Amino acid sequence: MELKLKSRGGGEQIRLELQGIAGRLSRDRFFYLLLIPFIAWYIVFAYKPMYGLQIAFKDFSVFKGIADSPWIGFDHFVKFFQGPYFWRTIKNTLMISLLSIVWGFPAPIILALLLNEVRNAFFKKTVQTLTYLPHFISVVVVAGIVTNFLAPSNGLVNILLEKLHMEKIYFLTVPEYFRTIFISMNIWKETGFGAILYIAALSGINQELYEAAVIDGASKWKQIWHVTLPGILPTIMIMLILRIGHILDVGYEAIILLYQPATYETADVISTYMYRSGIREGNYDLTTAVGLFNSAIGLLMVIVANKLSKKYTESGLW
Prior knowledge:
mainly alpha
């Protein structure tokens, strides 16, 4: 008798929960309809292409197709790991990514902190506009600007060097200069746009905390260190985790536009190797294997970075 009562009570609870879910779905039906384009985009462009990942484990032939191409296991991964370009591409990718994090990641945070202290609204809006406009310029145009600025004969930089009675330098053919040029270009292009997120986070800090800090005699620097930075720390950590997850994803478009065989020593990364191997040479199976390896490392880095962030800052993606 007791079991029957319990089962009836459980069934009644489930029925009430289903009614509640149906009521919420009916009430918010228009909001759920707005999700359809977003979900459709993910299915078409994110999940459907996963079917092609099996190319990484096949001797792929365009004429046979994915299904009829023979399986060869991990041969493409072994070929990449034992190939002459593996260590060079890994080293260059990590170096450019780590240097971009060291120099590029703090740049929008610093800009946001500086703009947060500006009290002249017109000046603040002007600086914001001028700094985030480069984000909307095509990378082809930006690379063209950099190439013209650094041109060996009539580039602005070499003209200044000539005026200073210094020898002209063809910067884009010197391997030692490539990483500095590439990272500097990205900082100029993305700092202003990246600062928008931190400016929004700064606006959410309780102003009473600043008032309390002033009463305690805190200087402007101490207010930033003890109030501002802790207030935006969760945002900083989430963005850092996402950045670390893409540590092997270097913007190959800009590199392809700037590099040349003379700078392969420091400029050739995993993405450019995939471009040459896949698009130029037609090794789609090898390129897919390299891309899968790249994604797996990125996922592992996100998991590790998230665990470390949760352990030391109590902020994370999940």
